[in-house]
C-alpha cells in the first residue's frame, strides 16, 4: 500500500519554511533518532521579553522530518517561550492534516528539537544570571 501524504505535508516538504542556521542564536537544540539515524538541529533567537523572534532548523532527515520541523518553526515563531514549550508533536501532525502512522516518530523529532533548544536557552540564561549575581557580589 502506498503511503499518502496530505497536501500540507507535501507543501512543507517541497518548500520548507525557516531552513538554515541563526548565527547569534541563544537556544540551540540537536536531537536524533537512533532507529532511523535522522538528526535535527533547531536554532532559536529569543528576545528579552521571552518572545521567539526567529527560528531556523536544519535536518539530515526524511521528508516527514523536514515537513514537521518546517511546520513546528511556523507554529512557534513570534510566540512566547511558555507557548512554545506547550508545542506537541500531536499539534504539529494535526496542523499538517495528519501523517502516516509509521512517520509519526519524525514529528516527535521536531518536538524534541524545539524542546531541546528551549532547554539550552534556559541553561544559558541561568548561567548568565549566575555570572551577573557573582559580579554584583564582588
Ligand atoms: S524516518 Fe526518521 S525522522 Fe523520519
Describe the structure.
The chain has 138 residues and is of the alpha+beta class. The chain has one domain (7-133): Sufe protein. Chain: A. Helices cover 49% and strands 17% of the residues. The chain contains 5 helices and 3 strands; from the N terminus they run αβββαααα. It has helices spanning 7-14, 63-76, 81-85, 89-95, 104-137, and strands spanning 27-32, 39-46, 52-60. The protein has a 3-stranded antiparallel beta sheet. Strand 2 (39-46) and strand 3 form a beta hairpin. Helix 1 packs across helix 2 (63-76) and helix 2 (63-76) packs across helix 4. The longest helix has 34 residues, at 104-137. The termini are far apart. The site of FE2/S2 (inorganic) cluster has 9 residues, from helix 2 and helix 5.
How is the topology of this model organized?
Elements (H helix, E strand, L loop, with lengths): L6 H8 L12 E6 L6 E8 L5 E9 L2 H14 L4 H5 L3 H7 L8 H34 L1
Antiparallel strand pairs: 1-2, 2-3
Helix pairs in contact: 1-2, 2-4, 2-5, 4-5
The structure holds FE2/S2 (inorganic) cluster (FES).
List keywords for this structure.
binds FE2/S2 (inorganic) cluster; 138 residues; single chain; Sufe protein. Chain: A; alpha+beta
What is the spatial order of strands in the main beta sheet?
1-2-3
- The N- and C-terminal alpha carbons lie at a distance of 69 Å
The proportion of residues forming helix, as a percent range, comes to 40-55%
Supply the helix-strand structural class: alpha+beta
Please write the string of helix (H) and strand (E) elements. HEEEHHHH
- The value of Rg in angstroms is 16 Å
User: So what's the CATH class?
Assistant: Alpha Beta
Bound molecules: FE2/S2 (inorganic) cluster
* Mean pLDDT, all residues: 94
Do you know the CATH topology? Sufe protein. Chain: A
Number of domains: 1
Q: Oligomerization state of this entry? A: single chain
